[in-house]
């Protein structure tokens, strides 16, 4: 073998190895969907549309992301395409260090009739694909029946309407409510003392039968306007993989213990102000999963309530057999 032939083979081998390592480096990046990594829940909206939102975490990224493409599918057929340029992505992506990039929430919507059932993401750098992800779009199929967890008329100050409030937070509070008490004229209470608030110390009820699986108590209810830090909370396992979570409870008001069986409508605690600036009940549902990294975690689910009255003011109430309370509504259990 002559020297020229040997040098040619060595050069070819070096180039092939470089290409392989380059490709390996690009493909090493991984993506995890938030708030959960197995499906994105669609929420039915008004005027025949349904919506969903999500975020993601990129790991082991060794390049700048300058384009995102999102494709929606129905029964294997592409029905929609969305592209985010570098200038738009700058408002969504933030570097966390150690090759990690985290996004804010993306909010998307399509007509319900389109029956979108899959979402594909592809991220690019300099027109080269860095990572792809395919994830299901599904409507959550609730298995249990739930009641509103409070007595009397209450106001939904924060819910999970499209693109706002708790759906901005890609955590287990994603599909949650903040609920405050109002008086007969629809006014919110105010005052410098906890007792001035209409909601403080009113009973919190179990939304369905179940087993108490977590209790945290002993955290003080701070002065109005002050955040007292850690909150008091209860978690109830209602079976079928559905768990309710009631937060900001009054200190020493919890009257159940881990392992106790409860029934729907049973008093379990009182509304408080632990871990928040205002007196209200934070309430939502979740399920336990094991993520792609083998970690056990809780992810939010969009549960519905049965047989409650709703109005946008203190006028005529409408009975809702099964539905989702919205921000700005007055709610009363039947």
Explained architecture:
By secondary structure, the chain is mainly beta. The protein folds into 2 domains: 109 residues, Immunoglobulin-like, CATH 2.60.40; 180 residues, Glucose Permease (Domain IIA) (Distorted Sandwich). The chain is 9% helix and 42% strand. The protein has 2 helices and 24 strands. The strands form 4 sheets. Strands 12, 13, 15, 16, 17, 18, 20, 21, 22, 23 and 24 form an 11-stranded antiparallel sheet that branches.
Quick recap of the structure?
This protein has 2 helices and 24 strands. Helices cover 9% and strands 42% of the residues.
CATH superfamily of the largest domain, called what? Glucose Permease (Domain IIA)
Provide the structure class: mainly beta
How many beta-strand segments? 24
Multimer state: single chain
CATH topology group of the largest domain = Glucose Permease (Domain IIA)
Largest sheet: 11 strands, antiparallel
Rounded to an integer in angstroms, the radius of gyration calculated over CA atoms is: 25 Å
Topology:
Blueprint: H1 3-27, E1 30-34, E2 39-41, E3 43-44, E4 49-59, E5 67-74, E6 77-84, H2 86-89, E7 93-97, E8 100-103, E9 106-111, E10 118-125, E11 128-138, E12 154-158, E13 176-181, E14 203-205, E15 210-216, E16 233-237, E17 243-247, E18 261-262, E19 267-270, E20 281-290, E21 296-301, E22 305-311, E23 318-323, E24 330-333
Parallel strand pairs: 2-11
Antiparallel strand pairs: 1-4, 3-4, 4-8, 4-9, 5-6, 5-10, 7-8, 10-11, 12-13, 12-24, 13-20, 14-19, 15-16, 15-18, 16-17, 17-20, 20-21, 22-23, 22-24
């Amino acid at each position: 073998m002559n020297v020229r032939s040997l040098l040619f083979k060595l050069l070819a081998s070096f180039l092939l190895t470089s290409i392989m390592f380059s490709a390996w480096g690009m493909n090493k990046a991984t993506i995890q969907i938030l708030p959960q990594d197995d499906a994105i829940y669609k929420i039915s909206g008004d005027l025949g549309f349904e919506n969903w939102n999500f975020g993601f975490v990129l790991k082991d990224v060794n390049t700048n992301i300058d384009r995102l493409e999102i494709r929606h599918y129905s029964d294997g057929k592409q029905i929609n395409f969305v592209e985010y340029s570098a200038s738009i992505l700058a408002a969504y992506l933030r570097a966390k260090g150690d090759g990690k990039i985290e996004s804010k929430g993306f909010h998307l919507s399509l007509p319900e009739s389109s029956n979108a059932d899959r979402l594909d993401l592809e991220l690019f750098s300099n027109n080269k694909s860095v990572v792809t992800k395919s994830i299901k779009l599904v409507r959550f199929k609730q298995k249990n029946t739930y009641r509103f967890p409070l007595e009397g008329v209450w106001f939904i100050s924060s819910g999970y309407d499209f693109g706002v409030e708790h759906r901005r937070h890609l955590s287990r509070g994603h599909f949650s409510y903040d609920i405050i008490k109002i008086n007969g004229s629809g006014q919110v209470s105010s005052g410098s003392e906890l007792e001035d608030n209409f909601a403080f110390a009113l009973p919190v009820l179990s939304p369905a039968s179940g087993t108490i699986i977590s209790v945290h108590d002993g955290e003080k209810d701070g002065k109005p306007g002050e955040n007292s830090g850690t909150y008091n909370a209860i978690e109830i396992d209602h079976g079928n993989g559905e768990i309710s979570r009631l937060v900001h409870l009054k200190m020493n008001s919890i009257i159940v213990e881990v392992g106790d069986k409860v029934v729907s409508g049973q008093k379990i605690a009182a509304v408080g102000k632990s871990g928040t600036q205002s007196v209200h009940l934070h309430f939502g549902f979740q399920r336990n999963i094991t993520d792609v990294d083998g970690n056990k975690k809780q992810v939010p689910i969009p549960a519905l309530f049965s047989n409650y009255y709703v109005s946008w003011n203190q006028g005529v109430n409408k009975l809702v057999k099964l539905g989702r309370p919205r921000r700005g509504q007055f709610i009363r259990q039947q």
